[in-house]
Design a protein that fits this description.
mainly alpha
């Protein structure tokens, strides 16, 4: 049986907790983390700004496609 994967969070004192199997991998940097560091905000993900920008662009496009245009009233 292979050794357990360990959290890849690096700081002054590295985290020695076991990495979570299903939700422990960051979708942005592909590193494995424990439950305390699995969120991009908690492990200072390098790709967090790119992720935020992509989400902003998707939300902007969605809102612009749903924008309603007021019909002009014809004056008689």
């Amino acid at each position: 049986m292979p050794a357990k994967k360990r959290c890849q969070f690096q700081s002054e004192t590295p985290c020695n907790s076991a990495a979570l199997r299903i939700v422990g991998q960051c979708p942005h940097c592909r590193a494995d983390f424990c439950g305390a560091h699995r969120l991009p905000e908690h492990h200072n993900c390098n790709n967090l700004e790119d992720c935020r920008q992509q989400a902003f662009e998707r939300n902007k496009a969605k809102l612009e496609s749903e924008r309603t245009v007021a019909s002009k009233m014809a004056t008689a």
